Amino acid sequence: MNAGPGVVLATPALRELAPAKPAPRIPSVVDMIFKVLTSAVLSGGLIVAGVSASSPSGATTARAQLTLPAPTGQYPVGTVALHLVDHARTDPWGVEPGQPRQLMTSVFYPAASTAGYQVAPQMTSAEAAGFDTFNTTGVPVGKVDWASTKTHAHVGAPTRTGKYPVVLYSPGLGDPRGWDTTLVEDLASRGYVVVTVDPTYESPAVEFPDGYVAKSVMPGLLNTPDVQSLLRKIINVRLADTGFVLSSLQALHAGHNPDAEHRPLPSGLAGAMNTADIGMFGQSGGGSTAFQRAYTDPRLKAVINMDGTLAFSPDDGDGSNPLPVAAHGLRTPFLLLGDKVDDHYTQASWDELWQHSHGWHRDVLLRGSEHGSYTDAQVLLPQIAKQVKDLPPDLVAGDIGYIDPSTAITCEQAYVSGFFDLFLRHRGIGPASPGCSAAVVIP
């Protein structure tokens, strides 16, 4: 590799949640990282930096083919990948000693036209191979043709004329930047420039323009005696990555090409970015990153945390070790999106944040959902279950719950876009979706 109080989001017939008994133990970020690590081992694949320790064996069989839902906004979507190099930092994971921190990002934006521009894959072939052996779904190795999944974004398409708010997306711990393409593309189709960031050496596999594939070091850390220190390092690395990406986007807006190879950018992209109105959202550890970054970085004007804990504790009911953002609160407007039991009454770190925050904030959960409901697993796992007959029992329900996938996606799209519309586009409408009245709960 070369070097707002008083503003209310419009919602239909929402029911309040009033638990009558103590909530069950909620999986924390600690649980999630161990799920990531152990699933890679138990599925028969172990990936370390630069090396694949196993590959599917036996006769070749047909792999499941998957389809992502089309964006619902009014604009077609373009995309471009940017290779960013932070020469002010040495990569913290030590795979290439002394080398600067390098990142791959993808920019999704409203396109003027898409004719003649190829559709981007959800992951490159090399990234898909890494994801096959190391991911959070629990799907056995060799069952899915991850590389064949296409997005609806067209590579290098010209940017539609206009000024669009910028939103960053950070994936969950151990997930690639493309694992929430459904929400990312939908937001771009509604008039946003959305930038996804891959956490190099944490993500299953990140492919760079010269063909180098940075594979995850996380499996090798499975037996670490100090999980809290590992989690702190992961979040701190992500925070620094986010700050660097924000600065790179500001440079792009000013007319500089931040891509390390200076590959051509889509026409009109720099001028279409409104870097005065930047938001961020993320799932799990990505949501934690978004909130903690907003605590220290005034460039972020609005943030969403999708089911990410704000403490380094083995149990989300334990708030004894909160992130600084939870301990001191946020003035930046924020939205908490939880699974079927996650809200500020059941998550101690969310409650601490709630008590210390003085700006606009809202807490919403989806009935019948699970942690993976806020990723592409929500729409892809049901497709896998129909094509792969020998999946582990309860794999689908354990990851995405029992909520209807189309309902979950509709509600997520409504709340994510409505929240950012309110605080980045300054339109006081808020989300409203007729299909969400029975699924959404505001505690």
Question: Which keywords apply here?
Answer:
443 residues, alpha/beta, 11-stranded mixed β-sheet, two-stranded antiparallel ribbon, 11 helices, globular
Describe this protein's structure.
This protein is α/β, with parallel strands linked by helices. About 12% of the residues have low confidence. The longest helix is centred in the middle third of the chain and has 27 residues. Strand 1 and strand 2 form a beta hairpin. Helix 3 packs across helix 11. The protein contains eleven helices and 15 strands. Helix content is 28%, strand content 20%. Strands 5-6-3-4-8-7-11-12-13-14-15 form an eleven-stranded mixed β-sheet.
Write a brief caption for the model.
The chain has 443 residues and is an alpha/beta fold. It has helices at residues 29-42, 125-133, 181-189, 227-253, 269-272, 285-296, 324-328, 348-356, 377-387, 395-400, 405-424, and strands at residues 47-48, 51-52, 77-90, 100-110, 119-121, 150-155, 164-170, 193-197, 205-207, 213-215, 273-283, 300-306, 334-338, 361-366, 440-441.
Describe how the helices and strands are arranged.
Layout: H1 29-42, E1 47-48, E2 51-52, E3 77-90, E4 100-110, E5 119-121, H2 125-133, E6 150-155, E7 164-170, H3 181-189, E8 193-197, E9 205-207, E10 213-215, H4 227-253, H5 269-272, E11 273-283, H6 285-296, E12 300-306, H7 324-328, E13 334-338, H8 348-356, E14 361-366, H9 377-387, H10 395-400, H11 405-424, E15 440-441
Parallel strand pairs: 3-6, 7-8, 7-11, 11-12, 12-13, 13-14
Antiparallel strand pairs: 1-2, 3-4, 4-8, 5-6, 9-10, 14-15
Helix pairs in contact: 3-11, 4-6
